[in-house]
Amino acid sequence: MLEGRRIVLGVAGGIAAYKAVEVCRRLVDGGAHVVPVLTRGARRFVGETTFSALASERARTSLFDDPDPIPHTRLGQSADLVLVAPATARVIGTYAAGISNDLLTATLLATEAPVVVCPAMHAEMWRHPAVQDNIATLRRRGVHVVEPEEGRLAGGDVGQGRLAEPATIVAAVESVLARGRDMAGLHVLVTAGGTREPIDPVRFIGNRSSGKQGHALAAEAAARGAKVTLVTTAALPVPPGADVVRVETAAEMDEAVRAVAPAADVIVMAAAVADFRPAAAATTKIKKDKGVPEIVLEPTVDILAGLGRTKRPDQTLVGFAAETEQLRQNAASKLVAKGADLIVANDVTAPGAGFEHDTNHVVILNADGTEREVPLADKRAVARAVFDAVLDGRS
Ligand code: C5P
């Protein structure tokens, strides 16, 4: 997996920098071409000669003391993966804020390759909300984070903050490289967000879906090389590389989905589509002094069930099931009723999961009777697991 892959190994200034030497050696032993980039802080802990001797190229340390006038763009563009081990709170914060103030942060901003970040710091710093927010931001952008481990820290303290073991880091690098652009050639259609069904020009029937899981799915598929169309109701940023169609109601979503579905290889219905809508929306604002209105509801079209009926054998259809009770039973009956290949079920009452959260806890049920559980993880990691299951089913 590592053979011939170009890896930029970023080393920041922490006592764990000595472990980066072992990471470097293991990557080179595995056949990778490793280019070390050391921050000024890193050089206070480990000499660049050590890295230059072990790596495939000499260690780089500066944006300016290099014969190449643009070392950061060259390093960023040519990398198959950028690994930062150890990543200090400073490098994590600078990267999350989009600031480039040395060769490593400039390279991180200049690369489109996958990035693996391995934090190491004192437990208090790791727990600090600023650091945790920055980590959440990076995760949302698709950066892979190898969590620090519990144990002895510098100065004899104990807690979570130790750099992960070199074997764990190398295994994470291998698994990210294995995924690579494994969705190239596939057209993926994703829906996201809750629909809004108008009662009158100012009021609507809506739901708690934020669209975050759907947007994370679109971003993940695009990062893995798929052509992505995202039909969304959410005012969230457009995931890099995805084509976006903005809609509001179930009927608009149905129309947008049916326009793209025949060309799609994979369809993921992550949107929370309303099941009912007002039979007639008032054309002017309903006045309070006219008394409490009676709003008559009618069913909306079930987009997923429609796709299930017309599905081609080479198409993979994924539905979502947001449940508050009997998760597996309800999701399993939805799998059959809607003609889907996979159902991603989540208990929206579980802590940290479901609507509006950045994290989710799901069970992916397969029409072949198998299932896989994804424990509480950020929505991008859930997206990763969903597409791993999709690809398993197509192989
Ligand atoms: O039936 P229920 O709403 O629980 O099913 C959820 C799944 O069905 C989701 O994948 C959702 O996107 C899809 N759905 C749909 N059209 C509807 C209602 C739900 O496509 N009108």
Q: Tell me how many strands there are.
A: 19
Arithmetic mean pLDDT? 94
Please identify, by name, the CATH architecture of the largest domain: 3-Layer(aba) Sandwich
Strand order of the largest sheet: 12-11-8-13-16-17-18-19
Tell me, briefly, the overall form: elongated
Give a brief description:
By secondary structure, the chain is of the alpha/beta class.
Structural notes for this entry:
With 395 residues, this protein is of the alpha/beta class. It folds into two domains: 6-179, Rossmann fold; 187-394, CoaB-like (Rossmann fold), CATH 3.40.50.10300. It contains 14 helices and 19 strands. The chain has helices spanning 17-29, 42-45, 48-54, 71-78, 89-97, 103-110, 123-127, 129-140, 166-179, 212-223, 250-260, 303-310, 327-338, 379-394; strands at residues 6-11, 33-38, 81-87, 115-119, 144-145, 149-152, 158-162, 187-192, 197-198, 204-205, 227-232, 242-246, 266-269, 276-278, 297-299, 316-323, 342-347, 359-366, 371-378. The strands form five sheets. An eight-stranded mixed beta sheet has the order 12-11-8-13-16-17-18-19, sandwiched between helices. A five-stranded parallel beta sheet has the order 2-1-3-4-5, sandwiched between helices. Strands 6-7 form a two-stranded antiparallel sheet. The radius of gyration is 24 Å and the shape is elongated. The structure holds cytidine-5'-monophosphate.
